[in-house]
Amino acid sequence: MQALCESDSPAEAWKRVVRPGEVVGLKINCLAGKGISTSIPLVEAVCERLRQAGIPAKDIVIWDRLNADLESAGFRISTRQDSIRTLGNDVFGYEDELALHGSVASLVCKTLTRTCDAVINLPVLKDHGIVGVTMAMKNLFGAIHNPNKYHTDAGNPYVADVWMLDPIRRKLRLTLCDATTAQYEGGPSFMPQWTWRCDGLLASRDPVALDYVGWQMIESQRAEKGMRSLKDAGRAPAYIATAADARHMLGTNDPRLIERVEV
Amino acid sequence: MRSAALPCLAFCASGRTSELRAIPLHAPALTDSDAQFTVEARYYEKLPYKKIKCKLCPRECVIDDRERGYCGVRENRDSIYYSLVHSRVVTAHVDPIEKKPFFHFLPGTAAFSIATAGCNVNCKMCQNWEISQARPEQVRSNYMPPRDVAALAKRYECRAIAYTYSEPVIFYEYLLDAADAGRSAGVKSAVVTGGFIQQDPLKEMCRHVDAVKVDLKAYSQKFYKEVVNGDLKPVLDTLVTLKKQGMWTEIVYLVIPTLNDSEQEFKGLARWVKSEIGPDVPLHFSRFHPQYLLKNLPPTPLEILERAKAVSDAEGLRYVYIGNVPGHSAESTYCPKCRRMVVERAGYTVKSVRLRQGKCQFCQEPIPGIW
Question: For B88-360, which CATH superfamily applies?
Answer without folding.
Answer: Aldolase class I (3.20.20.70)
